[in-house]
Each structure stands twice: as C-alpha cells, then as structure tokens.
Amino acid sequence: MTDDVLLTFNAGSSTLKIGIFELTGAQAINVGRGKIDFDQAPLSLRYTVGPNHYEKSIKGDNGENFVSVVAETLDHMLAHLPGRLRAVAHRVVHGGMAFQRATLLDDAGIEQIEKLIPLAPLHQPQALRAIRSIETLRSDVRQVASFDTAFHSSQSDLVRRLAIPRGMHDDGVRRYGFHGLSYKYISSRLRQIDPTAAKGKVIACHLGSGASLCAMEDGVSRDTSMGFSALDGIPMATRPGWLDVGALLYLMRGGMRQPERIEDFLYHECGLLGVSGISGDTRVLLADTRPEAAEAIDLFCLRIAGEIGRLCATISGLDAIVFTAGIGENQPQIRARIAQRLQWLGIKIDENANNRNLTSINAATSTAKLFVIPTDEEQVIADEAMALIT
C-alpha cells in the first residue's frame, strides 16, 4: 500500500458502511470494506483489508455516543493500515439546490448541509453526525461530501417541476431524484461494457430496499422516478412510492395528524411490507406461498414496468435497461417478471443468461439490450474525493 489512505463513510439510520481505499497517483484503489450494524448488541466493527478479516467490539451507540464509535473505528482500522489517513469522504443524501457536485467541506459547507435537514429528515442527520465526528477527532483530515441528488441536476426544469405554484418551485419544492451515486457508477461502467449502448437511451433500475429508476441519454440523467423525497416513485421495501396525496389527507382526517407519525408510517410501514403484511424483503416474499406475498411482488414488478414506460416518453425511446443493486443484481425472477410486462416494447429476456446473472441477459431478438451490472457507490465517492484533494 501507499502512504495515503482514504475512507468513505456511508452513514445510514441503522448501519455505518466504510470503504477503504489506497491512493496511488490520482487513483483510489479499493482494498477493503467495513460495516457496523447498529441493530446488533453489543456493537461490532467487521471489515476486510485485502485477504485479512478483522472484527472488533465497539463501545458507544447510535445516539449521543456516536463520536466514540467513530473514534474506536478509526483507531482500530488505522492500526491495520500502514498509510496515513489523508481524507474521509461521505455520502450525503440531499444536496438541495446548493450542491450540484461533490465538495470539500468547511464550516460553511457543513452549515449548508445542515440547512437541508428538512428535505431529508431521516437521512441527512446521519451523514452530519459522521462529518462532525471526524471534525472533532481528526481536524487535520480533509473531508469531502458526495451527494445522491447531484447526478440528477442535469435534468431540465420541466422534468423537475411539480404542478404547484411557481414560487414554491423557486423555493426548492421540486423533484430532485436520488441514488445518483449509483447511477453515476452505472453510467461509467456501461461505457466500458458497451460504449454504443451507453451513448443511447438507457433506463437504469436501482432495485434494493430503497429503489428507483433513472432515464439517461449518453450517460446523462434526464428523468428519474424519485421526486422531492426518497418516498416517491415505485414501491420499496417499506416505502409506498407514488401515493395519491388525497389518501394521505384521508388518513390525516382519520387521526394520523402528527408529522412524526406520518413520517414513520410512510418510511417504515408501507411498500412491500404493507401490501404483504409479511415482509419488505423480496427474497422472503418470493419464497412465501401466500397470495399476499405474490401480490406484493406482482405490484412491485407492475409499477417498475409502468415507470419504464413513463421514462421512455421522457427520452423518446429505449436502447437498454440496466438492473443493479441488491434485487436488480441477484434476483432473476424479478428481472424476468419485469421483462415479461415489457414485451409490448419488443423486450425479450434470455432465460438462461438471466438465471445465471450474466452481464448481458437480453435475447438476440430483443429490441433493447438488457444488462445486469453491480453498482459501487463507494468507488464513486472515492473518485470524487480524489478529484478534489489532488
């Protein structure tokens, strides 16, 4: 390894995911990954560096003692990394209108991210805690923020507009889109795999517990399923996706009046879990024989296929579909059901290639190419940081 190390922090509500990169010239080379699961007790840091696996019990918690979690994590990791820590780069969900690209963090930048908490009240504070912790523990280390919304800043004003008074749009109530770091990686990786397809009209499907779609032309975001918040678009594990606001008004009149209760309901009680009453995990639902499980899966695939149709209208055609993230990369049954609903577009899947999770899974007679490409958000975060610190 070289003398310099870069860490990426992806702080979620229940996990802290860490990428470990060595800096070679102008490149960030991934050499390991780590994770702390805050739902486990006692806390444990598990990570790998090359062929070596490490596990360390961690004191502290996911609340007021979070800084001690970061302190122990750094102490243990850096003891097994021969290089000096040069930078920590963070995934920040919301950049609002202020951040359209990655940025080196200073006091003003951190304050601006803090002002965006109302736009992402469940996600933004997690990243800020990690940023503040590094600031407290290692003020000598440079910090960079990468934003999930930034990739979509290329979308037209028309696409980003909600049908509300213009002043509200100007104040920031607009469609932002998320999973941008994943889509940026897919755009770059597809260019390596199939340059011709990458230059065309592509719809990428980031299908995980959080899920969205993005329409791209020549690798540039033109439209996406998620809008003002990460609740919008297709159904997710526990989030509803598109929801008639009239239904929400109805629930509010029925007694669900507190914003905190509504927020918890929308983020944790809907989606596949709500429809099935069983689980928000598609693996569990696919293995379950109850009709409620089947209906949840069918709704998931129906809405994805429908959203692909809508996105085709934005980019006026379709040359390729990319499946990525946990579900998209690993569940052939879901991909096959989506493709089946898109036969009217001339899309045909190669069953054998699909079942083997190959990179190219379309039949020879398909009007659009179909790809399975694993995503790597940590690599994008590291690359964006390198561009700023070198």
From TrEMBL:
<keyword id="KW-0963">Cytoplasm</keyword>
<dbReference type="GO" id="GO:0000287">
    <property type="term" value="F:magnesium ion binding"/>
</dbReference>
<keyword id="KW-0418">Kinase</keyword>
<keyword id="KW-0460">Magnesium</keyword>
<feature type="binding site">
    <location>
        <begin position="281"/>
        <end position="283"/>
    </location>
    <ligand>
        <name>ATP</name>
    </ligand>
</feature>
<dbReference type="Pfam" id="PF00871">
    <property type="entry name" value="Acetate_kinase"/>
</dbReference>
<dbReference type="InterPro" id="IPR023865">
    <property type="entry name" value="Aliphatic_acid_kinase_CS"/>
</dbReference>
<feature type="site" description="Transition state stabilizer">
    <location>
        <position position="179"/>
    </location>
</feature>
<comment type="subunit">
    <text>Homodimer.</text>
</comment>
<feature type="binding site">
    <location>
        <position position="91"/>
    </location>
    <ligand>
        <name>substrate</name>
    </ligand>
</feature>
<comment type="similarity">
    <text>Belongs to the acetokinase family.</text>
</comment>
<keyword id="KW-0547">Nucleotide-binding</keyword>
<dbReference type="InterPro" id="IPR000890">
    <property type="entry name" value="Aliphatic_acid_kin_short-chain"/>
</dbReference>
<protein>
    <recommendedName>
        <fullName>Acetate kinase</fullName>
        <ecNumber>2.7.2.1</ecNumber>
    </recommendedName>
</protein>
<feature type="active site" description="Proton donor/acceptor">
    <location>
        <position position="148"/>
    </location>
</feature>
<dbReference type="GO" id="GO:0005829">
    <property type="term" value="C:cytosol"/>
</dbReference>
<feature type="binding site">
    <location>
        <begin position="326"/>
        <end position="330"/>
    </location>
    <ligand>
        <name>ATP</name>
    </ligand>
</feature>
<dbReference type="GO" id="GO:0005524">
    <property type="term" value="F:ATP binding"/>
</dbReference>
<keyword id="KW-0808">Transferase</keyword>
<comment type="pathway">
    <text>Metabolic intermediate biosynthesis; acetyl-CoA biosynthesis; acetyl-CoA from acetate: step 1/2.</text>
</comment>
<feature type="binding site">
    <location>
        <position position="17"/>
    </location>
    <ligand>
        <name>ATP</name>
    </ligand>
</feature>
<dbReference type="GO" id="GO:0008776">
    <property type="term" value="F:acetate kinase activity"/>
</dbReference>
<comment type="function">
    <text>Catalyzes the formation of acetyl phosphate from acetate and ATP. Can also catalyze the reverse reaction.</text>
</comment>
<dbReference type="InterPro" id="IPR004372">
    <property type="entry name" value="Ac/propionate_kinase"/>
</dbReference>
<feature type="binding site">
    <location>
        <position position="377"/>
    </location>
    <ligand>
        <name>Mg(2+)</name>
    </ligand>
</feature>
<keyword id="KW-0479">Metal-binding</keyword>
<dbReference type="GO" id="GO:0006083">
    <property type="term" value="P:acetate metabolic process"/>
</dbReference>
<feature type="site" description="Transition state stabilizer">
    <location>
        <position position="239"/>
    </location>
</feature>
<keyword id="KW-0067">ATP-binding</keyword>
<dbReference type="InterPro" id="IPR043129">
    <property type="entry name" value="ATPase_NBD"/>
</dbReference>
<feature type="binding site">
    <location>
        <begin position="206"/>
        <end position="210"/>
    </location>
    <ligand>
        <name>ATP</name>
    </ligand>
</feature>
<dbReference type="GO" id="GO:0006085">
    <property type="term" value="P:acetyl-CoA biosynthetic process"/>
</dbReference>
<feature type="binding site">
    <location>
        <position position="10"/>
    </location>
    <ligand>
        <name>Mg(2+)</name>
    </ligand>
</feature>
